Amino acid sequence: MKVLICGGAGYIGSNMTALLAAEGHDPVVFDNLSTGHRAAVQQAELIEGDLGNYDLLVSTLKNRRIEAVMHFAAFIEVAESVKAPLKYYRNNLCNTQNLLAAMETAGVCKFVFSSTAAVYGIPRKIPITEDLPKEPINPYGQTKWAVERMCHYQSRAGKLRYASLRYFNACGAGHNATLGEDHRPESHLIPLTIQAAMGKRPAIKIFGTDYDTPDGTCIRDYIHIDDLCRAHLLALDKLEASSELVYNLGNGKGYSVRQVIETVKKVSGKDFKVVEAQRRPGDPPVLTSDAAKAKRELGWETEKPHLEQMVASAWQWHSEHPTGYLD
Questions:
Q1: Catalytic residue among 88, 140, 167, 211
Q2: How far apart are CA 96 and CA 173, in angstroms?
């Protein structure tokens, strides 16, 4: 299948592009390179463009004879979304509306959307199932939920077949540890902890040590990037017979901040300073997924569920790319 990967030069998008190519599909990357990396695209065709450019999107969809679109081009920093909400509404919501309009014009109806567990806000129960209320507490989560509703109504109008995939914490390096996580600035716990192990930062901070969890630190659900991307392939296949799919994608098991830190120390063989700090506002003690629906309906299973597997692949990539992507 000819698939347009919006945001295909980013962390998840580049891994998805590589998997599609490996599975015999023909991916085309569409990215403005504002946060992505040209080097991460590897062998796929790269069209440098912005999702705000309707004419370029329509011509790309038509000229490349695109059959499906995967969308990974959102801004993802929760704290930044609170400080600059209009930036997030413009890119995450308005630009996605522009993309869907271009798809409608070009006659492309299959769409796989990168959503987030942030649509649930502070969930009413753990583990989180897809039917829980959607109560996002920041502009990032709100824009993702707004896109989901837009897709829903476009689907009801008979103009879209879509899968909305709500991620928990994607991590690790995929495609045989050749495609890693290189956000600038970085805000995710595993790469930040690896930076401390590599001596790139003086310490790693733990925000809150008095939560009602076994070791007092927050517990989060981590999913290896390879497992995450395989779920997208399965969802794309299922769109042949379905018009609206919604799935949580998580490991189903949580790991604490202290467990992540200790695992990085074990895998790297390095010791580093750990600083205990005050809680951050809005951090729930535990966020874990119930991904039973994806397993049941897609036949999906996580093949790399253990934290040490995730950290080891990330450590390998960072060790082999000490300055990230050189582009």
A1: 140
A2: 27
Q: Can you tell me the distance from the alpha carbon of 179 to that of 5, in angstroms, rounded to the nearest whole number?
A: 16
Spatial distance between the Cα atoms of 315 and 246, rounded to a whole number of angstroms? 32
Instruction: Note whether 294 and 8 are within 8 A (CB).
Output: no
Which CATH number is associated with domain 2-171+223-249? Answer: 3.40.50.720
State the Cα–Cα distance between residues 58 and 74, nearest whole angstrom: 19
Three-class secondary structure of residue 288 per DSSP: coil
In the chain, which stretches have pLDDT less than 70? Answer: 327
Q: In what order do the strands lie in the sheet with 45-48?
A: 45-48, 26-31, 2-6, 68-71, 110-116, 161-167, 244-249
Between CA 106 and CA 221 the distance in angstroms is 38
Residues above pLDDT 70, as percent of the chain: 100
pLDDT at 140: 96
Q: Is 162 a catalytic site residue?
A: no
pLDDT at 320: 96
Beta strands in the chain (DSSP E): 2-6, 26-31, 45-48, 68-71, 110-116, 161-167, 169-171, 203-207, 219-224, 244-249, 254-256, 273-277, 286-287
Work out whether strand 254-256 and strand 219-224 pair parallel, antiparallel, or are unpaired: antiparallel
